[in-house]
Amino acid sequence: MDTVVAAPRALLGRTITGPAWVRVRAGRIVEVVTGEPPVGAEVLADGLLTPGLVDIQINGAVGVDFAEVDPVSMAVVTRALPQTGVTRFLPTLITAPVGVVLRQAHDVLAASAALPENSGARPLGVHLEGPFLSPKRPGVHDPALMVEPGEAEIDALLDDEVLAGALRMVTLAPEQPGGFEAVRRLADAGVLVAVGHSDATGEQTRTAAEAGARMVTHLFNAQRPLGHREPGVPGVALVDERFTLGLIADLAHVGPDVCRLVFNAAGPRVALVTDAVAAAGMPPGRYQLGGADVVLTEDGVPRSPEGTIAGSALTLDRAIRNIVSVGVDAADALASATIVPADAIGEPTLGRLTPGAVADLVWWDEDLRPRKVWVDGVVVYDADAAVVPAGREPALEVVATAGQ
């Protein structure tokens, strides 16, 4: 049976237009039309209809660290994320010995496979942020656990039968010994390679792009900075159109003016990410990131006990509102959390309202807060429902975070 959802405005491609309506059949969008809806449509009285949000860097949320996940805790995350508009996400694992990372990845995939249908947001595989990083730019990662991406280490990833097809993204420092060859091998295997936690020069960053790297992980953070003569990682990323730019828009990792600068320079290539950790959606306290302690204080920014920023407590809907607040057009901000990340990881049926796309939808109110969310055409979150679908826990946004 078809479902028709109509809204006064909708994000079609990278443009907000309306009125418009979409027809959904068997979990897919089969028709998208601008104009008045047909009889029998569910007509949304106000607000905006968009594709579901896609977060391709998230370490955990609502008290759950993906480095220590099981089917029950994975289900907690998948039920919570739709409140923030997220319908698809890429669980991210930080630096650990290769053998440990493989075990953690297996656990993530097993927990993902055990999810019941219509349980909420859906995982997309695994993103490994390490261990092939630069000890010069560790951030909160443990330099003692970092290794060079040698042939044996890359073999361990690509020859793992459980990871086959599920290893979607690897963040590495290409300037490390063996780094450029690792980029080539991973890219040839269909893995999105991102430059991150890297001391690469501008020239080395371009060489990584030549080898097949196509993304920069959390632009400006934990990488050789932009200089007026040596552009470093961000300088090249901002002008090299081969790169998609991951941006943590909590306005703490990257300040408001620089966020606006990034959009001015490379808006169509920006992918908003949360880099959220278990502290996201939780009150101040002590949480875990890759087995290490992370402290969330009243300022809403998780930090190591030594004071280093450790991921974020950001939600993707808040990132969109933050970017709009610094002067970026809402359509551009929304595209950066839908079609851009979907395209970056090679998912052409996600992040868009178009025939053939997966029927992941978000209805937003006038303040850009999600009111209703569909995954595969099924309602998984309804802010106005007396009983929230899919066993939704209480509100995810418990703690005030930096920004709007």
From TrEMBL:
Report if keyword Metal-binding is assigned. yes
Give TM regions: none
Residues of the active site are 275 (proton donor/acceptor)
Q: Name one GO molecular function term.
A: N-acetylglucosamine-6-phosphate deacetylase activity
Report the cofactor remark: Binds 1 divalent metal cation per subunit.
* Superkingdom, natural source: Bacteria
Q: Fetch the NCBIfam families from UniProt.
A: nagA
Whose protein is this, by species?
Saccharothrix violaceirubra
Q: Which family does it belong to?
A: Belongs to the metallo-dependent hydrolases superfamily. NagA family.
A Gene Ontology biological process annotation? Answer: N-acetylglucosamine catabolic process
Q: Where is the Amidohydrolase-related domain?
A: 49-380
Q: Which protein, by its recorded name, is this?
A: N-acetylglucosamine-6-phosphate deacetylase
Q: Which residues bind Zn(2+)?
A: 129, 197, 218
- Which top EC class is given? hydrolase
Q: Which residues bind substrate?
A: 140, 221-222, 229, 253, 309-311
